[in-house]
Amino acid sequence: MNKGVYLALLSIGLAQGLKIPIHYLKKKEWRPDLFFGTGGMPSSHSAGVSTLTTYIALRRGLSTVDFALSLIYGLIVMYDAQGVRRQTGELTLKVNSLNELIEKIHKKESMEFKEKSPKKLKEMLGHEPEEVLGGAVLGILVGLIGHHFTEKDRKLSKFKLKF
Q1: Closest Cα partner for 139 from 64, 70, 37?
Q2: φ/ψ of residue 20, rounded to 5
Q3: Which of 11, 23, 121, 123 has the largest count of CB atoms under 10 Å?
Q4: Could you read off the pLDDT of 13-61 as tens digits, one per residue?
């Protein structure tokens, strides 16, 4: 695997890990399970694609097809993370509240109603725009730092080859 992929995966892992302390600071609730969840601050989707796009821009240049593809797909991923997936999450909130309302109505009826209640749908699917931006900033930083360290590796390997 190339260094761009490694850096993008590292960025995704960092974003997922940062969700735990950020959530704790906001809600005073320790939730290690957020590492494996979707949604929240920062967006790991945005972090991953931003890292890869930054790394490609610095390594290959802004005028390359590689950068253009990464940028366009990255923008689509970020738009989707805060658009379609967020709307799905909001719709899920409404469906879950309707289920609670139906349960309350059934409890008031004298007739016994037995139905296996469905699992509550996951509500935190998408991102707020600031969560996407936070992920993008994290991704750009990881891309810059990663490129800096890989640039040193390339210079060292060229130096070793000369001797």
Answers
A1: 70
A2: -65, -55
A3: 11
A4: 999 999 989 889 988 988 888 888 777 788 888 999 999 999 999 999 9
pTM: 0.68
Report whether 42 contacts 13 (CB < 8 A).
no
Alpha helices in the chain (DSSP H): 3-27, 44-60, 65-82, 84-108, 129-162
pLDDT digits 0-9 by tens, 75-114 = 998 888 877 666 666 677 677 677 677 766 666 654 454 5
Q: Which residue type, as a one-letter code, is found at position 26?
A: K
For 119, phi then psi, to 5°, come to: -65, 145
Query: In the structure encoding, which two tokens stand for residue 88, read together?
Result: 């799905």
Q: Which two tokens stand for residue 82?
A: 């805060």
**CA-only gyration radius of the chain, Å:** 22
Which region holds residue 28: left if phi is over 0, alpha if psi is between -120 and 50, else beta? left
Nearest to 137 by CA among 27, 13, 49, 38: 49
Cis preceding-peptide flag for 129 (omega within 30 of 0): no
Contacts of 66 (CB under 8 A, 6+ apart): 56, 60
Closest of 44, 58, 52 to residue 6, by C-alpha? 52
Cα–Cα distance, 77 to 23 (Å, whole number): 23
